[in-house]
Each structure stands twice: as C-alpha cells, then as structure tokens.
Amino acid sequence: MSKRQDQQNYRITELERKVKGVQSQVTGLRTDSAALQKQAKDDAMRIRNLEIKVACQRGIPHKTVAEIHDISPARVSQIVKQTV
C-alpha cells in the first residue's frame, strides 16, 4: 500500500472509533432521558396526591376534589388514607 492509502485507512479507522463512541454516548443519553421522564412523572403524581390531601384536610368535599383532578371520589379517599 502507498503512504496515502495508509493515511486514508488510518483516518477511516479513527472515524469508525469515534462513531462508536458517539453511538454509546447517545444510547446512554436515551437511557438517562427515560429515567428522568419516569422520575418526573412520579414526582408529578406525588405532588398531585399531596394537593388532594391538603384540599381534603381543608374541608373541601371528596367529590369536588375528584372533579378538579378528574378522578373518582373513591380514589380521593384512597389517596387521603395513604401515609406520606
């Protein structure tokens, strides 16, 4: 092989190595993103449940709280009974 072909092969090998590295980083980011989305959803649910508990503690009827949060009055009762 000529010197030029050797240089091209070296460059190709280096680019392939870099692409593999970038691909593994993207895969890691996707995994991190999914975990963050799940955590955000869980946090939102906890906040909603706390809002429901506080509303009921302030004397708002379960039926009204259920309508506000688009859930059943039975579900409101379950959430209120749960410990924090």
Short recap of the structure:
The chain has 84 residues and is mainly alpha-helical.
Could you walk me through the main structural features you see in this protein, from its secondary elements to its overall organization?
With 84 residues, the chain is mainly α. It has one domain. 86% of the residues lie in helices and 0% in strands. The chain contains three helices and no strands. The chain has helices at residues 3-57, 62-69, 73-81. Helix 1 (3-57) runs antiparallel to helix 2 and helix 2 (62-69) packs across helix 3. The radius of gyration is 27 Å and the shape is rod-shaped. The protein starts with a helix and ends with a helix. The mean pLDDT is 87.
Helix run count: 3
The proportion of residues in beta strands is under 5%
CA gyration radius, whole angstroms: 27 Å
Shape: rod-shaped
Largest sheet: none
One letter per element, helices H and strands E, the order comes to HHH
Number of domains: 1
